[in-house]
Amino acid sequence: MAVRLLQLRQAHEGANGGNGPSGVGRLARAKQPQTGMGERMSAHTHPGARILLVEDSDDLRALMTLILETDGYIVDSASTAEEGLRLLDSTSYDLVLSDYALPGRTGAWMLREALARQVLSQGILVTAHPNPRDAGEFPVIYKPLDFDAFLDQIREYVTPDLRVIAPPPDPARSAHGHARSAEA
Known about the structure:
Distance between the termini: 65 Å
CATH architecture: 3-Layer(aba) Sandwich
Strand content: 5-15%
Order of helices and strands: HHEHEHEHEEH
CATH topology: Rossmann fold
CATH superfamily: Response regulator
Number of helices: 6
Shape: globular
Radius of gyration: 21 Å
CATH class: Alpha Beta
Number of strands: 5
Helix content: 25-40%
Low-confidence stretches: 15-43, 162-184
Structural class: alpha/beta
């Protein structure tokens, strides 16, 4: 799998003029420093976190899916806005990542439509366009992707399901739930 990941990453870098992991793929609120991708990918898991990826480029969709799945996400994918909406109508997602320029309708249109249908929890646009005209309130990650920064950005939106753990009993409380007095 590591070899396939490397091949897909190199193909992505080549498709973008060798500008692959250059720091260009960024989201304005990304704050974490970068380290090696292998370290990050093995260090984080997100059991049960489901992402819908809508990307019309077969190679980039396969690469992004592999990166996200290696990081522990469950990923479904689509290649058009209409196909993405059909998946959103039938499945609940923690996050939707959509290319902006899709065949037919834009990713921004799909995210707005999903909001109107009340089937979108969170959406992010991924694009090489310097200023996607109808991105609106949706955050944007710019291509070419820096995969370490990309995963950091996704982690800001999708957090592991944290179970609420009851705190240990307070020794200052009695079995009846009343605070003990200092005189007792």
